[in-house]
Batch of 2 targets.
Target 1
Amino acid sequence: MSQTKPFDYSLPENHILKRENLSPEIKAALLGDPREGWSSHSNFDGYANFWLRIHNNLRGGSDYLVKGFQRLLDEAESNLDDAVNTARLKEVGANVVSFAQHHHEIEDHNYFPRFVQFYPNVEHAISLLDSDHRVLDEALDETERALSCLQNQTADRDAIARAHNGCQALQAVLARHLWDEEEIIVPILLARF
Ligand SMILES: [Fe+2]
Ligand SMILES: [Fe+2]
């Protein structure tokens, strides 16, 4: 009699801070439409495209923050106060963080349980995404804390450097999560939604 191994997120092939791709076990359970064919699928313009656009906005937001903070770090001391005020990265960052939190909440509560209900084979893949969200939440909280230390009127180079580091960490985990999540859920959205 075959027995399914319990899913262990802490393994290097699963954890978002350690994996470099989805594991062969997870990949084997997916619906399997290759990414190259997604945009020509007859159902692409429904939820699949909508979802990919949200992900691209999140990627764009985290890229914008990393580049913006890097520009501030490169700024001459005499221009730094003005540059901080013009860039408004505290506000942009707050928007990116709340957009990501809202998106994950909708996935966790409204969509992931339904995906497992329709396709029980993807249970481990969805558990992986759920666990990713917890790591991402920590990265988002960390980014929020770093952003809250930024002053609007007087630039503090250390606070800018902390915000830059926080946004770089967020950019890395978001990039891994979004790509892998697309591999898991877009074929389901194409087939079913
Ligand atoms: Fe997600
Ligand atoms: Fe997502």
Target 2
Amino acid sequence: MTDENDFAQQLDRARRALSGAGRVAVLTGAGVSVESGVPAYRGVGGIWQEVPMEEVATPEAFARDPKKVWDWHAEKRARLGQVRPNAAHKALATLERQIANRGGRFLLATQNIDGLHQIAGSWNVLELHGSLVRIRCSGCRHKQSVGFDESPGPPGCPECGEPMRPDVVWFGEALDEDIFRTAVRAVISSEVFLTVGTSSLVYPAAGLVEAAADGEAHIIEVNLEPTPATPLADVALHGKATEILPELVR
Ligand SMILES: [Zn+2]
């Protein structure tokens, strides 16, 4: 059998699993947004090769030099104003509508902080690492949306005056427990778990893949290359998410 036939067969199996499923959980990572022009953080050519994360993405860095950390995030945020969701984001929004139309449950957990899933029309999105287009107070619980605002800062909190910070999870910080617990619950109870564009190497992605394997979920992996999750997957589709996902939800 040729690889091409094999791929078509795998695609068909994945499509059938999705078309009958009432409960679907999805995990996405940087690989989904790279094709929109949002650079990845990790890996070759990633952002952390340009700027050491210790200088701009830790609570210690913010305490040391809040302006540097704020302005660095503001510049990334402004660049998001120029990118658009791609065919993979749109296919996931379509999948959510299909499942909602048949009365099923759909949850998309993303490691991305670019907001592109929501712009593409996804509704039930859990942002595991927060969002660049939101800021929160470093003192109280105040949060607000800022769109693609690139103003230098940080501004003071309108409620308490403490400096505002990006509402993203930095290195050395814990994920929001409620958000992660909700994601795990959805993954464990899902009939199909679809992981897209993530290397599945590090927490929390690795934890969600394991949760899916512990549950009864049919696991579908879509990624450019094999990952540590591949041996756990019932179907592994290796290629571009922008090409494979539209095929999956057709
Ligand atoms: Zn405050």
